[in-house]
Amino acid sequence: MKQKCILIFSVIIFFLSPPALQLRLSNRFHIRQMKKGRHINENGGKYKYEIKTFEVPVDHFSFAVKDKFNIRYLVNDTWQRENNAPIFFYTGNEGDIEVFAENTGFMWEIAPEFGATVIFAEHRYYGESMPFGNKSLIDPAHWGYLTSQQAIADYVDLIEYLRSDENRKHSPVIVFGGSYGGMLSSWMRMKYPHIVQGAIAASAPILQFTGVSSCESFARITTSSYRAACDTCPKLIQRSWNVITNVTSNDEGKKWLSENWKLCQPLTNSTHVEELQAFLEDVYGTIAMVNYPYETNFIVPLPPNPVKVFCNHLSNKSLTGKPLLTALYKALNVFTNYTGQTNCTNIENASGNLDALAWDYQACSEIFITICSDGVNDMFRSEPWDIKKISEDCLKKHGAHSHPYMVCKEYGCKDLSTATNIVFSNGLLDPWSGGGVLWNLSSSATAVIIPEGAHHIDLRGSNPRDPYSVILARKYHRYYIKQWIKQYKQQKKRILVT
């Protein structure tokens, strides 16, 4: 007998007052997210821009290194109605900047309202912004300049260049970013408040670091999203780990699973089985992150409310053994073959692109995000947070030491009381919300909670199926942007008068 599964959420937005799994879940998401996309103008021409380049130093903080290179940026100034018009600046994260322009419709939608110039800046070492060309990621001597600090300094130089135009000399700058890009936006406002007048930081897990947030939050929030769709679903996923191990304990079982799951590469040894299970963990986390109420093609083609659609196949609590794995394969097809055009299930990362390697290095060196699971309070396998082991693995892989406390030393984590003019928005469906700012830091650094929101849904373009809480969050963004611009213009007026 199948259990009826109902998804219920309250429609509300409110303000609050003041191991290996880590690498796989963070790295593989970014690998998939940043798959190379074609020029947005070839996709119906919805968002139009000009592609330009800007020269920056390889090292902003050294007098010894003289090398320079070009970063890409996208610009649209067609809505600029007057001199010193606002600049809406997207702080590019880990991938091709055109992919972010394609998926940040909110900026494009409000730019005409504000008469703003829209800028999307590409992060160094991603897309086509490579300091040393194809040699950029061959060894620590070349990739050692891949840090958030250097990237933010690139953006500061670009903004100063844009303001060197007499018509933009006093233009207020509002930075936007989602996920790692949201982290960059918030950090940029904290570090350079004289350059940036405000920041919209969506789904920015700036607290997901050692000793600051619980490493279990990602796995537990993911599990909660699946449980909300169907109480049986995460229980069957949890049960499936032992079933997979038992079925694949012999060659006959490996053959059965390979054929029934239509794996592109058959399972022939225990390493392949481990890779399959790691792939499943990645899929579960990714579906939860992009659990949007409408069809998307952000990472892979997915249906509306993909967690619910996935869990529709896992509602029979009596499932076990091979019948459970058969049902799990049908659920998995929601992610791997929603279009019905995929001939086999590929569990490997076949992209082989530099963006994937660059983020893997950043996750090992500086953006050392803490994620773990216990297999009891969540639906994942038990994988404790082992900072020593992960650091050793990173050293072997990249030849560079990890700096797990660098981010908190550089930008602050436990004490952010001096932060101003930042909106931290987090959707409670998003597994990364556990590492986000969920309370007001000050009167002007506020938290917006979106109960029905997945990963930075508020930065996406508006959709008829957007929940009311998402619509309301965007209204708050507009409100604060207006306040920041007004505040900046008043300050400039007083300075010019005196």
TrEMBL record:
InterPro entries: AB_hydrolase_fold, Peptidase_S28, Ser_carbopepase_S28_SKS. The keyword Disulfide bond applies. The keyword Signal applies. Its EC number is 3.4.16.2. GO terms for molecular function: dipeptidyl-peptidase activity; serine-type carboxypeptidase activity. It comes from the Eukaryota. PANTHER family: LYSOSOMAL PRO-X CARBOXYPEPTIDASE, PROTEASE S28 PRO-X CARBOXYPEPTIDASE-RELATED. Cleaves C-terminal amino acids linked to proline in peptides such as angiotensin II, III and des-Arg9-bradykinin. This cleavage occurs at acidic pH, but enzymatic activity is retained with some substrates at neutral pH. This is Lysosomal Pro-X carboxypeptidase. The lineage of its organism: Eukaryota, Metazoa, Ecdysozoa, Arthropoda, Hexapoda.
